[in-house]
Amino acid sequence: MGKLKLLSTHHALPEDDEIKRIAETDPAQAIDLVVRRYRDRIYNHAAYILKDHAEAVDVTQEVFIKAMRERRFFDPGFKMKAWLFRVTSNMCFNMVRDRKRRRGLLEKHPPPRSIAANQVEVVYADERQQQIGEAIQTLTENHREILELRYYGDLSYAEIADALGIKLGTVMSRLSRARNKLTEALEGSGVVPE
Questions:
Q1: Of 126, 99, 100, 105, which Cα lies nearest the Cα of 115?
Q2: What CATH number should be reported for the domain holding residue 120?
């Protein structure tokens, strides 16, 4: 019973600290456990930002490749979960920014006028998501980070406090200020917050 038995459900997978202990003797198994523990959450996080399945799959794969190359990843004090979500967010926001640049080229050659109603809704949702992403980029780094961890990373307040090394009360007040600043930024750009 010395070797950890691989289990099939997310909830049965070992916690990060246990995975780090496994990495000391079996790095390949540790990487497998990290991927199994976080792949769905990282994919969902990327898909939420990008609104594109194929891009979200690509980002998810790239995040785990970066994790395998990160020398500190299994260090005792390293915050694996926060790092994975931060890298995912950064990659996704870079892709959204690149889309905006490409959009300028597409405006020179517009698509045919026959766009179905559901396509219009998809375009509207993409534009709104882009506007929110742009508004988030106007916030301070602390506000961006806490919003990304809470809403894109789906981390609890306690997990955010742990990931950022701050008190729970600080998480709540910083998150409240970040939401207010985001609302102001959206209203300032003419976007009505939902």
A1: 126
A2: 1.10.10.10
**Is residue 169 assigned to a domain?**
yes
Query: In whole angstroms, what separates CA 125 from the centre of its chain?
Result: 18
Name residue, tokens 């889309």.
99
- Residue range of the domain that includes 31: 10-110
**Angle of the 168-188 helix axis to the 157-164 helix axis, nearest 10:** 100
Residue 110 phi/psi, 5° resolution? -65, 155
Angle at 74 between CA 11 and CA 21, to 5 degrees: 65
* Residue-wise DSSP of 89-138: HHHHHHHHHHHHHHHHHHHHSPPPS---HHHHHHHHHHHHHHHHHHHHHT
Is residue 18 domain-shared with residue 102, that is, in the same domain?
A: yes
SS (H, E, C) 16-63: HHHHHHHHHHCHHHHHHHHHHHHHHHHHHHHHHHHCCHHHHHHHHHHH
Nearest-5° Cα angle at 17, 14 to 21? 90
Which of the residue ranges 56-60, 94-98, 104-108, 168-172 has the most confident prediction, judged by mean pLDDT?
56-60
Residue that finishes a domain, picked among 57, 83, 110: 110
Assess whether pLDDT exceeds 70 at residue 58.
yes
Alpha carbons 172 and 178: distance in angstroms, whole number: 10
From residue 118, how far is each of 57, 114, 121 by CA, in Å?
A: 24, 12, 5
Q: What predicted TM-score, i.e. pTM, was given to this entire model?
A: 0.53
